[in-house]
Design a protein that fits this description.
By secondary structure, the protein is mostly helical. The chain has a single domain (about 55-245), classed as Triger factor/SurA peptide-binding fold (Orthogonal Bundle), CATH 1.10.4030. It has helices spanning about 10-30, 50, 70-80, 90-115, 120-130, 140-145, 150-175, 180-200, 205-235; strands at about 60-65, 65-70, 240. A three-stranded antiparallel beta sheet has the order 2-1-3. Helix 4 packs across helix 7 (about 150-175) and helix 8 (about 180-200) crosses helix 9. The protein is globular, with a radius of gyration of 31 Å. It starts with 11 loop residues before the first helix and ends in a 17-residue tail after the last strand.
């Protein structure tokens, strides 16, 4: 409870001001506002908590009732997990990152339906080290983690889950990707050779680069298969995107579930 203290006039001037103010106060108290018209909605009183509320996070998209928050987007960008393209517009970059987060969430949901084993610890270590290498020193790396409200253990969990999704996709779609000898030979004679000749570089024999071309073509086709599979998942899912919409159209503030 707040206790109000009455301040007595300490000088004639203060006393005079107090007296002059009395008619105004009395007039204000005597004036009665016009009664509201029938049917006029009565404003809901605003609580102190609502008046002092501060925006903590914002829903940017919802994938099958699973929200993707502004903090998720900030984390992916702040930790350098996604890099902008040359001269890429910042808004376009953020939307591209959000689309990747939506795709990841769709794959996580599919993976959770069927289950998947943990990825090797050394794979997690190498990917965490790659993220750490993007920062100039350990202090900058730790600051980036703190800025995103994360600990090194949180980052490891995030990386492990992403690697689990990639491993699941490779296990499900990898066997469907086939690269034949004709595919390798055709790529060598057209794209591979033409590119080296354009740069004035020597062209190695096909036998020396056969395995490299096979890996390149397999990765390209696997990425195409992943993109198609993800599009199919998105078409079947309930995906709502609020990115770029006016603040009034955004969902309310949410609290992240630990």
């Amino acid at each position: 409870m707040v206790h109000r203290r009455t301040i007595l006039p300490s000088s004639p001037v203060v006393a005079l001001l107090a007296v002059l103010a009395l008619p105004v106060v009395a007039a204000a108290q005597g004036a009665r506002p016009n009664p509201p018209k029938p049917g006029t909605p009565v404003p809901r009183p605003v609580s102190a908590a609502e008046a002092n509320a501060q925006l903590k996070d914002r829903v940017l998209a919802v994938v099958d009732e699973d929200p993707i928050l502004q903090s998720d987007l900030d984390r992916a960008i702040g930790l350098g997990m996604v890099q902008p393209g040359p001269k890429e517009d910042p808004t376009a970059f953020q939307r591209r990152v959000l689309d990747q987060l939506i795709a990841d969430r769709l794959r996580f949901h599919e993976m959770d339906r069927f289950g998947f084993e943990e990825v090797p610890v050394e794979d997690v270590d190498s990917h965490v080290a790659a993220i750490r290498a993007r920062f100039k020193d350990e202090a900058a790396y730790q600051k980036a983690l703190r800025d995103q409200g994360m600990t090194p253990k949180d980052l490891r969990r995030l990386v492990a889950r992403q690697l689990m999704a990639l491993a699941y996709v490779d296990e499900q779609l990898g066997p469907r990707v086939f690269v034949g000898l004709d595919d390798i030979t055709n790529y060598y004679k057209t794209t591979f050779t033409a590119d080296l000749q354009k740069r004035g570089a020597p062209v190695p024999p096909l036998d020396d680069v056969r395995d490299d071309i096979r890996k390149l073509l397999r990765e390209k086709r696997l990425n195409e298969a992943i993109a198609k599979w993800t599009d199919d998942l998105r078409n079947k899912a309930d995906v709502q995107v609020f990115f770029g919409k006016p603040p009034g159209a955004l969902p309310p503030v949410v609290k992240k579930v630990p």
